[in-house]
Amino acid sequence: MGIAFEDAIKQFQALMDEVDEPLKITFQNIHQGYPAENLVRFLKAREWNVAKAHKMLVDCLNWRIQNEIDNILAKPIVPTDLYRAVRDSQLIGLSGYSKEGLPVIAIGVGLSSFDKASVHYYVQSHIQINEYRDRVILPHATKKYGRHIGTCVKVLDMTGLKLSALSQIKLLTVISTIDDMNYPEKTDTYYIVNVPYIFSACWKVVKPLLQERTRRKIQVLQGCGKDELLKIMDYASLPHFCRREGSGSSRHSADGADDCFSLDHVFHQQLYNYINQQAMNLQPVAPIKMGSFHVDLPEPDPEGTKIALTIETELHKLDRNGINRLPSDLNLNSNRNQNG
């Protein structure tokens, strides 16, 4: 790291030393003992502009205080049937770790329907997984591998992606904005697999709109991506939808224990039990109240809105043209090479 970067970190730290005590307390939940490394995340997100990074972090800390994010891991989604319905319609899980110790987060983009609960439950669930990753998973990985691990890799499964995904764009934009504003630079690489034509058509248009820093993180892999992913992780850490070509569905595998989206998977059992235990510790006598944990939904970032509108436009074009099959001239291997 160059001298200029080190100076930026020192300036940023000096500014943070001046913030009010409540902000310092919630910042501790963010950095988990590694303040400088987390300042770097916000500096990267603002192209190393100290003033902009400072504003971004202070806004994030205020958001956490106003929405009681520090307590969100003590706010279970109840009853269990509702939580299971959220898990079945918002497909996400931890399949293992890369060879470098980074958690491998699997996301079933194509088959997530987001139609079993209100927006607030999906936002609550998403933030809880973020917080569990940052406060439990990453500190555990840091201790296990003997070095600071502050990022993950994400494998996005596009199996089953349809034009009906249009109805999800608003919610996905909200979730993306929450991540961009409050959890910047937490993902090292995005691997996109099982790509249908509908994604490829949109990707060609959306890719130029992304910041170079973001584009460098995205790799579109051929097929289920198994061969490429095995270069960075062991077979046991592959998401179930990457384990063989033509697996057909990312929703459920033959063995529920291998399906990292399932509530029965060890990751979700640990997360579920952790949140319920935290709730008991916080309120040992009072019963757990039903109802979603409402978080202020952010105004989408202008760039994010532009990208969402572009995707919406492209999907409408495909719908009008009646696109429902893979064209013979589509060269996914070429697409992969351009992004790898």
From TrEMBL:
- Which residue numbers delimit the CRAL-TRIO domain? 79-239
What Pfam families does the annotation carry? CRAL_TRIO, CRAL_TRIO_N
Enumerate the InterPro entries for this protein: CRAL-TRIO_dom, CRAL-TRIO_dom_sf, CRAL/TRIO_N_dom, CRAL/TRIO_N_dom_sf
Top-level division of the source organism's lineage: Eukaryota
Read off the PANTHER family from this record: CRAL-TRIO DOMAIN-CONTAINING PROTEIN, PHOSPHATIDYLINOSITOL_PHOSPHATIDYLCHOLINE TRANSFER PROTEIN SFH2
Q: What is this protein called?
A: Phosphatidylinositol/phosphatidylcholine transfer protein SFH2-like
Q: Which organism is it from?
A: Nelumbo nucifera (Sacred lotus)
Highest classification ranks of the organism: Eukaryota, Viridiplantae, Streptophyta, Embryophyta, Tracheophyta
